[in-house]
Structures are given as C-alpha cells and as structure tokens.
Design goal:
mainly alpha; Serine Threonine Protein Phosphatase 5, Tetratricopeptide repeat; 86% helix; 0% strand
C-alpha cells in the first residue's frame, strides 16, 4: 500500500509540474502576443488601414477594377490622395488606373511615388512601370 501511495504522490508531483509548465508557457505566449502588437501598433496607427474608412477605400477601388471602371478608380484615388497625400494605396490604384487607360507617363509617375512611399512594394509595381516604359519607348 505504501508503494501505491508513493506512486500516487509521484504522479501528483508530475501533474503539478506539468500544470506549472503549461501556465508558464501560456504567460510567455501572452507576453509575446502583446509584444508583437506593440511592435505593429505604430505602423497601424500611421498607415490608417486599420480604420474602416480606409479599408472601404481599398475595397471600393478593387470592386471598380473588377468592373473595369478605370476612370472611376482614377477619381476615387485622386480624392484619397487629396485626403491622405502620403497614402501608397491611393497612388497604387491611381497608377494602375492610368496604366489601364493608356496614360503611361502618368502611370509611371504615380507608381514611382508608390516606390518612394512604400519601398517594399517595388516588386508589385515594377512590372507595370517596365511595361509602360516599353510602350512609351515604342511610340517614339
């Protein structure tokens, strides 16, 4: 009987130890999540795209592109630039609207502005810039 009591005590010890380990793991995870949030918080506040009105702008622009209403995208993006002159999304959509309308120099200018405001987007805009430049060179 004493051996059974000893085994039960060992099992309780390991269960307690496991519970403590899981609790510590949970606490570390919570701290990590808070740290990550704090790291991204300044970006979220400066970008503005955590706000519904800015997400609404992107959604509307995407919907207009899907309908091939490029002039309306141009108008929408121009309005957004007037409100937020450092918004790379607005210049991106403006540049794409110019590109699809055949306004290649304006497209290049807008997409280069995207590269200035958001250098990480270079791979996204590079094909449009290169294609617009080749079309302009062919016209000369």
């Amino acid at each position: 009987m004493d051996e059974i009591v000893k085994e039960v005590k060992k099992i309780r010890f390991f269960i307690a130890l496991g519970s403590i380990a899981l609790t510590l793991l949970l606490l570390v995870s919570v701290v990590e999540v808070l740290f990550m949030y704090k790291s991204f918080e300044p970006y979220l506040k400066t970008s503005g795209y955590y706000k519904p009105e800015y997400r609404a702008f992107s959604k509307k622009a995407e919907d207009l592109f899907a309908e091939e209403k490029y002039q309306e995208v141009e108008n929408l993006a121009s309005e957004q630039i007037a409100k937020r002159p450092t918004d790379p999304y607005a210049y991106y959509y403006l540049g794409l609207s110019y590109y699809h309308q055949g306004k290649y120099q304006k497209a290049i200018d807008s997409l280069n502005k995207v590269n200035q405001l958001a250098p990480s987007w270079q791979e996204r805009v590079k094909p449009y810039i290169e294609q617009a430049q080749s079309v302009l060179k062919a016209k000369k």
